[in-house]
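Reference record
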Amino acid sequence: MSVDSENLVIASGNPGKLAEFQQLLGPLGLNVQPQSDFGVSGVEETGLTFVENAILKARAASRASGLPALADDSGLAVDALSGAPGIYSARYAGVAEGGESQDKANNAKLLAALKDVAEGERTARYWCVLVYLRHADDPVPLIVQSDWKGDILAYPRGSGGFGYDPLFWIPECGMSVAELSGDEKNRLSHRGRALQTLMEQFNQ
């Protein structure tokens, strides 16, 4: 499979995700455009899984742009919370402002939910599902997924990244995701590795 166009619409309105995709895809010579360039602000995520929601987002972006679309649906699954916040990660706290205010509210709710959970029992995974559609009615979307294991800290550390990154501790690195450089995060993260798998599929 190969990329069908040098132009690709990213089905996301999340500035952090868009920046990471541009860093990862730019060197491949792809012209990455956010869905906002085509008047798409978002899609109702009615799916019950990351895969379902990613397909919904990719289809809406491809239909609006007329371009191949790449959608990401990702989130945090905490073992002690039975996988929550899961598909609701971005709107866990129910705050509508978005951006940094949303991240802080989500992080605060997560810390409150884990306040009685011991340090050794705060294991979690970041999950990323990527869906590539050649066109809006593509019957065979390309789907890849990857995860990133870590632990949830009792307090935030670092100023980089976005979302739950200040709370997500990587034991082998001895730091939170928010303390990693952008290059380190792209190399190690669930999103970076999922995208690498996707590129390998393109080259087959």
Q: What stands out?
A: DSSP finds five helices and seven strands in the chain. Strands lie at 7-10, 31-34, 69-78, 123-133, 142-152, 168-170, 175-176.
